[in-house]
Design goal:
mainly alpha; binds zinc ion
């Protein structure tokens, strides 16, 4: 699903809070990859969020926010992939089960 910049901007904070649905997350990542303006918007928000988090955790180590963000985006993509893989395996398993049942029924009928 293609989304507009306005929609993507509206998703930035929810992305950071991990509050996007799977479909939204997918569209959002797709948009971020193509749109520099929205990626920058995400970057800025992400950095602010992490900086505040770091302050409240009283952690003054150097953080590479860009690296953190690209890791975060990679995790999000892996998350999507995992969900699709699970769905695929689930459907594959169900189809396989039905097929076996079918063979069994035929076997019983022809016996
Ligand atoms: Zn955009």
């Amino acid at each position: 699903m293609e989304i507009t910049c306005q929609q993507a901007e509206g998703m930035v904070s929810r992305y950071i809070d991990r509050n996007l649905s799977l479909n939204e997350l997918e569209s959002f990542l797709e948009h971020i990859e193509k749109c520099t303006a929205c990626r920058e918007e995400l970057e800025t928000n992400f950095i602010v969020y992490k900086a505040i988090q770091q302050l409240s955790e009283d952690d003054d180590s150097e953080m590479d926010f860009r690296l953190l963000l690209s890791e975060d985006l990679r995790n999000a993509r892996n998350h999507i992939r995992k969900i699709y893989l699970n769905r695929f395996l689930l459907i594959g398993g169900a189809v396989g089960g039905i097929f076996l049942l079918f063979i069994l029924v035929i076997f019983l009928i022809l016996r």
